[in-house]
Amino acid sequence: MELKKLVEDLRVTGVTRLNKRHFTLELLSPVKLPLILPGQFAQALVENSPSTFLRRPFSIHSVDYQKNTLRLLIQIKGPGTSHLAELKAGDHLNLIYPLGNSFSLPFTKDVLLVGGGCGVAPLLFLAQFLNQNNIHPTILLGFRTREEVSEIDAYSRCGKVLITTDDGTEGEKGLVVDHSIFQREKIEFKKIYCCGPDAMMKAVAKIARMNNTDCEVSLENTMACGFGVCLCCITPTDKGNERVCVEGPVFNIRRLPWK
Amino acid sequence: MELKKLVEDLRVTGVTRLNKRHFTLELLSPVKLPLILPGQFAQALVENSPSTFLRRPFSIHSVDYQKNTLRLLIQIKGPGTSHLAELKAGDHLNLIYPLGNSFSLPFTKDVLLVGGGCGVAPLLFLAQFLNQNNIHPTILLGFRTREEVSEIDAYSRCGKVLITTDDGTEGEKGLVVDHSIFQREKIEFKKIYCCGPDAMMKAVAKIARMNNTDCEVSLENTMACGFGVCLCCITPTDKGNERVCVEGPVFNIRRLPWK
Amino acid sequence: MPDLSVNIAGLPFKNPVTTASGTFGYGDEFRDFIDLGRLGGIFVKAVTGKNRDGNAYPRMAETSSGMLNSVGLQNKGIEHFCHEIYPRIKNFNTNIIVNVSGSTVEEYVEVAERINELDNIPAIELNISCPNVKLGGMAFGTIPSMATEVTAEVRKVYHKVLMVKLSPNVTSISDLAKAVVDGGADVITLINTLLGMAIDAERRRPVLSTITGGLSGPAIKPVALRMVWQVHKAVHVPIIGLGGIMNATDAIEFILAGASAIQVGTANFIDPAASVKIADGIESYMERHKIKHITDLVGALRTE
Amino acid sequence: MPDLSVNIAGLPFKNPVTTASGTFGYGDEFRDFIDLGRLGGIFVKAVTGKNRDGNAYPRMAETSSGMLNSVGLQNKGIEHFCHEIYPRIKNFNTNIIVNVSGSTVEEYVEVAERINELDNIPAIELNISCPNVKLGGMAFGTIPSMATEVTAEVRKVYHKVLMVKLSPNVTSISDLAKAVVDGGADVITLINTLLGMAIDAERRRPVLSTITGGLSGPAIKPVALRMVWQVHKAVHVPIIGLGGIMNATDAIEFILAGASAIQVGTANFIDPAASVKIADGIESYMERHKIKHITDLVGALRTE
Ligand SMILES: Cc1cc2nc3c(=O)[nH]c(=O)nc-3n(C[C@H](O)[C@H](O)[C@H](O)COP(=O)(O)OP(=O)(O)OC[C@H]3O[C@@H](n4cnc5c(N)ncnc54)[C@H](O)[C@@H]3O)c2cc1C
Ligand SMILES: Cc1cc2nc3c(=O)[nH]c(=O)nc-3n(C[C@H](O)[C@H](O)[C@H](O)COP(=O)(O)OP(=O)(O)OC[C@H]3O[C@@H](n4cnc5c(N)ncnc54)[C@H](O)[C@@H]3O)c2cc1C
Ligand SMILES: Cc1cc2nc3c(=O)[nH]c(=O)nc-3n(C[C@H](O)[C@H](O)[C@H](O)COP(=O)(O)O)c2cc1C
Ligand SMILES: Cc1cc2nc3c(=O)[nH]c(=O)nc-3n(C[C@H](O)[C@H](O)[C@H](O)COP(=O)(O)O)c2cc1C
Ligand code: FES
Ligand code: FES
Asked: Residue B242's closest chain C neighbor by CA?
């Protein structure tokens, strides 16, 4: 398996509606899947959508090399994701993948994964990958409300799952950073991986910094190409403006100018 | 019933594939159908087709006031018609209709209808309308080849049907103007209605002129609006530049500068 | 209920939604589809001094998210307008504004002078921007001194609200805007069509009889928005914005960029009820964002 | 097999399909997707005198059939190009052409002079059109006398094929074309992006950090085609055409309008293999239409 990028029509082999705003797609590759690392993403072509000119980026949610499939977890936001929500088994979806860097393996077993919204997408793949390396992370997931809490079984197989909901209908009430694990003097984790809305990642990064805990975040950004040539997706880092689609999407918070 | 134009989502209640390039759509109106005259057309909105910005005009192929449905006969040409070919029963199609003028009632019973290609579309409706006025026209239809010959039963119920095919696989071989009815000294019809490709209509018009036979043609044209406001669809007539979508699509050849 | 009314150079509009010249006929063609009284105003098709047949067929080409036209100011001239059309439309319950075109300064002046006499036409829109007329039509809108001159000459004979519609086919839209304000324009309309071209590769021929034509539709919206924004910063007269407006969100964008009112053009072809839907959509936006007066949104783009 | 090769100002291209600056990186990013040797040429990202960080985020907005960008010439400067990038790309089996940008005449001259020394770069493309740079970048491409001057100064130090890329944001593209030919340009590239703007109505803010940006993609194709056609009639140097080319039919349209070669830009983002598919599609078109040499199609639009 080599780290080569592909442009391919993958066949939709499964569509699972998780709740009103979220669904997963299982996609079968016509050729042997390349090596895909947790944190990498794909650029999906939304066909038959007059208002969607560019591709849309989605994290790889999980990979099954036996079945030669990968999965995406998609939150319906605008025209592109609404169109993708209409895909049915048997349809095709054109992807450029795998793109971007990946989360790095931790030098500790005290690992926390924090995800919110569609930011949970890359964390399942990461958790499974950590398991293969004998790490069983704690997984803190934030949802809006009980109805949106989903795939907990899959996460539970990888580690201990903690939940917050904005309205308190499941798990602890509040945002992920309000969770009781963060309310102690000193948090018990040596490495945090985080993906979610900007504000959430910044709040988690702040906690990590205060605790001197190593922390990697997966940034969102508006992308035109997704493979490094348009320079539209930059983020300021310690090395100047870097491309989120190539040097990222995963950055260690040490490298980001977040306070 | 009044001659009011509507913009409506009609429900597809039937799709009939006639052959590789042609299909009909049966469309159910959510409100009582307005009065529609033969020769009139509809402007169809092609949704989910990024390369189809404007509506596409199609003649009304037949009307069933009991069922409250109308039908379109569509030839697949480019992106718009290809998309419409994917409509299924239960889908909706937005139409502006009925548009344009109509064929006029003849003052004779010796009537000939001549159609070629997708130009046959308005002739079925016209033939049915003539029947209601106790006229049983001769109907000459030109097709490319046997495989494309279709709906002959429906036409036969309205009058005597004659056929030409380009390759002679059914009916007489050649173009409609090559048909034996035109090879006599004097043709036997007092009124000709014609719809088809420009070259065909011009050739038929020439025969009509030579025989001093009254003749109406239904012109094609590129349309932006379809209801008279953009002035994109003009054709030169004895009154200057007239709009094919309002003053037409049906014109008496007397009014056209065709030689 | 939010207040959608705007006052443009003294002329009240019940809401900022009007329809663009050349895309709405004389309004009556839309009576089956909408209540014309719901509109802020109607800009009718260009009127010239004499009858014009316009350009030869084909006059239209579809493009990505847009269309090209080369209609070429087809109309029956000012006499016909005054006697045949004006009586038919003068009692519409909305502002009827006439788009005035010409090939010479004299022609503009002649048409404006006649329209000045029509009681129920409260404003004219000088079209110094139509790219389809060979004789001067283009030049008026692209050379500032000529734009000032034609505006000033019309200003002398026209005593109601004088709007001037600019062409986007220029290096500096602000210079043109300043030029027509110098000439006495009360209002600036932006934009007319971008000059474009379509080719039929199979036949190896231009699609339009005139080879080039005017591009309209959502494809040009980014250019139109930019020009409204630039002109809003450059001059202090009200702006009427258009170019690819298809829905209420597009309309709000133009208003935020600095337009006091907007025109719906090509969208009318795709949905004849688009204009009224846009008026409704603006109202919902204002309710959702708790905006009391539409005028609070004009030029309210936050750029700090 | 049809002959797709073209010779542009003495420089041979194996086919007329090249890729546009700023949309193809330095080429190596595409190695997973296509065989670079199948391309007529690659126009690499703009190079300036010194390192430039480019504009702040957000730099991109999607529009109807297009996109706006305000990347702003981010690059590490000419030294870095010569030492780090040139060695990596100099043996690609295609023409590597460097897009040269600057804020002053001196900067253009400095960069051109350095690139003149690089054996495997047979041509440069002077980008006098990028709308994103505050200091002069815009002015060079919009004022004919400045366009002549910068071209002439570069001409003195640059001894290989000198291409100049024009901005479409002008009243008369022919005047600019004539101006750069007067300055000594061997080839004209058209068009760069149209200046546009996008607004987020919900947040009432511009989408781009720079407020305005450059519009590319199929939305601008009609304008680009028109300019290629106008310049083809106005000057006698070869033209490289681009603007919204997504497929072989689009490419043929530009060639018929007068382009000797074409560039594929934004299309690379949607399909990284677009350029090679376009080369294949041109070949099929030529076979179908029995065209032996692609040069027979250049400017072959039938307008009689
Ligand atoms: C590396 C990466 C990985 C991602 N992974 C996932 C994933 O696994 N699952 C998932 O559901 N979504 C993911 N996203 C976000 C997803 O790409 C967007 O939600 C999607 O593009 C929206 O498309 P749309 O046409 O539906 O909505 P649009 O109309 O394009 O956008 C709707 C709203 O979302 C905002 N938006 C769109 N794209 C982005 C973006 N990239 N960053 C920030 N705001 C944006 C827009 O400004 C707008 O307000 C990822 C984004 C990136 C950059
Ligand atoms: C009043 C009227 C009635 C019509 N009735 C029917 C009908 O009943 N059934 C039917 O199948 N078709 C009918 N047509 C033609 C139909 O509108 C076109 O075939 C259709 O718009 C093509 O759309 P497209 O997107 O598939 O192809 P496009 O890509 O738009 O066109 C494919 C090819 O057809 C040519 N073309 C497209 N539209 C027209 C036109 N209006 N006139 C001449 N050439 C054109 C184009 O130049 C192009 O070469 C009618 C047209 C008019 C004006
Ligand atoms: C078919 C057509 C005819 C037009 N005729 C005129 C006209 O007579 N006078 C004028 O000032 N503008 C005319 N225009 C330009 C429009 O009023 C408008 O400025 C332009 O189409 C951009 O807006 P849109 O993208 O919303 O259509 C015409 C546009 C079209 C599409
Ligand atoms: C993201 C992006 C970056 C660009 N950077 C440059 C550049 O550095 N130099 C340049 O001359 N043109 C640049 N351009 C313009 C393109 O080369 C091209 O002229 C324009 O995009 C129109 O072509 P298209 O519609 O095929 O993309 C850039 C365009 C895009 C979209
Ligand atoms: S999205 Fe193009 S460089 Fe990252
Ligand atoms: S199509 Fe608009 S006037 Fe006929």
From this structure: C53
Looking at ligand 3, which residue's alpha carbon is closest to its atom 11? C127
Strand, helix or coil for residue A47: coil
Question: What is the number of structural domains in chain C?
Answer: 1
Give residue D77's domain range: 6-297
D11 φ, ψ to 5°? -95, 120
Q: How far is the CA of D263 from the centre of ligand 4 (A)?
A: 10
Residue A57 and residue A43 in contact, taking contact as beta carbons nearer than 8 Å: yes
B43 lines ligand 2 (CB under 6 A): no
Q: Of D212, D226, D244, which is closest to C197 when you measure between CB atoms?
A: D226
Active site residue D130: yes
- Domain assignment present for D303: no
Task: Write the ipTM.
Answer: 0.95
For residue D111, give every residue at least 6 positions away whose Cβ sits within 8 Å of its Cβ, in sequence order, or none. Answer: D47, D48, D49, D78, D100, D101, D102
Take residue B45 and report the two structure tokens written for it. 């909105």
Distance in angstroms (rounded) separating the CA atoms of residues B150 and B146: 9
pLDDT tens-digit readout, B119-138: 899 999 999 999 999 999 99
What is the CA(D51)–ligand 4 centre distance, in A?
A: 19
pTM, two decimal places: 0.96
Note whether residue C87 is domain-resident: yes
Ligand 5 centroid to Cα of residue A231, in Å, is 5
On whether residue D304 sits in a domain, the answer given is no
The alpha carbon of C24 is separated from its chain's Cα centroid by a whole number of angstroms, namely: 11
Q: Is D167 on the interface with A (CB under 8 A)?
A: no
Helix (H, G, I), strand (E, B) or coil at A202: helix
Which runs of consecutive H residues, i.e. helices, occur in chain D? 77-80, 86-89, 105-116, 137-142, 144-157, 173-183, 221-234, 248-257, 267-270, 274-288
CB–CB contact D53 A224 (8 Å): no
Residue D269 CA, closest ligand 4 atom number: 31
Predicted confidence (pLDDT) per residue in C198-216, tens digit: 999 999 999 999 999 999 9
* Ligand of minimum distance to the alpha carbon of B100: 2
Q: For residue C304, is it within any domain?
A: no
From D6, D39, D130, D173, the catalytic residue = D130
Cα distance between residue B24 and residue B61, in whole Å:
9
How far is it, in rounded angstroms, from Cα C231 to Cα C259? 10
Position C136 pLDDT exceeds 80: no
What is the domain-level CATH number for residue C10? 3.20.20.70
Interface check for D269 against chain A (CB to CB < 8 A): the answer is yes
Q: Which one of A48, A86, A88, A91 would you mutate to disrupt binding with B, by most B Cβ within 10 Å of its Cβ?
A: A48
Ligand 4 within 6 A of CB of D46: yes
- Ligand 2 atom 39: residue of nearest CA: B222
The half-sphere exposure of A136 on its side-chain side, counting CA atoms within 13 A, is: 6
Which of C97, C130, C194, C252 does the annotation list as catalytic? C130
Please report the domains of chain B, with CATH numbers, ordered by start residue.
Answer: 6-99 (2.40.30.10), 111-218 (3.40.50.80)
Q: Is the pLDDT of residue D188 over 70?
A: yes
By C-alpha distance, the chain B residue nearest A83 is B48
The whole-angstrom separation of Cα B141 and Cα B113 is 8
CA dist C277 and C302 (Å) reads 26
User: What are the structure tokens assigned to B230, written together?
Assistant: 């953009």
Query: What is residue C55's DSSP assignment?
Result: P
Residue C17: name the closest of C270, C236, C218, C294 by CA.
C294
pLDDT in tens, A89-135: 999 999 999 999 999 998 888 999 999 987 899 999 999 999 999 99
Residue C259 corresponds to which tokens in the numbers above? 């337009």
Determine whether the interchain pair B49/A48 forms a contact, defined as Cβ–Cβ distance below 8 Å: yes
* B interface residues, C as partner, C-beta within 8 Å: 4-7, 45, 50-55, 96, 221-236, 240-241
**Sheet containing A92-99, strands listed edge to edge, beginning at the edge strand earlier in sequence:** A56-59, A41-45, A92-99, A6-19, A22-28, A69-75, A62-64
Strand C11-13 to A92-99 pairing: unpaired
